Amino acid sequence: MPPTDVAAVRAAVGADALVVVPGVRPHGAPADDQARVATPRAALDAGASHLVVGRPVTASPDPPAACRALLENLR
């Protein structure tokens, strides 16, 4: 499910369901082949319970720094 649909899915399934959201990118990161993306904060604020972050970390020259940047976006 794209991040743009999280709020509608959350409303349909309720607060206890797990809502896994791919397409999570830090602010300013390229969308790559993802048509609809969101920042970690936006996805969580919309109701995501789990975030899927791939290439922004795995394709980074410094994956630990990429992880730290994503976590900073959550504050």
Task: Give a quick rundown of the structure.
This protein has four helices and two strands, in the order H-E-H-E-H-H.
Walkthrough of the structure:
The chain is globular, with a radius of gyration of 12 Å. A two-stranded parallel ribbon has the order 1-2. The protein has one domain (3-72). With 75 residues, the protein is mostly helical. It has helices spanning 6-13, 40-46, 55-58, 63-72, and strands at 20-21, 50-51.
Helix fraction bin: 25-40%
**Uncertain segments:** none
- What is the domain total for the residues? 1
Question: Helix tally?
Answer: 4
Instruction: Report the portion of residues in β strands.
Output: 5-15%
Q: Identify the overall geometry.
A: globular
* Count of strand segments: 2
Order of H and E elements: HEHEHH
Question: Separation of termini?
Answer: 24 Å
Largest sheet, spatial ordering of strands: 1-2
Radius of gyration: 12 Å
Largest sheet: 2 strands, parallel
Summarize this structure as a short list of keywords or feature phrases:
75 residues, two-stranded parallel ribbon
Topology diagram in text:
Blueprint: H1 6-13, E1 20-21, H2 40-46, E2 50-51, H3 55-58, H4 63-72
Parallel strand pairs: 1-2
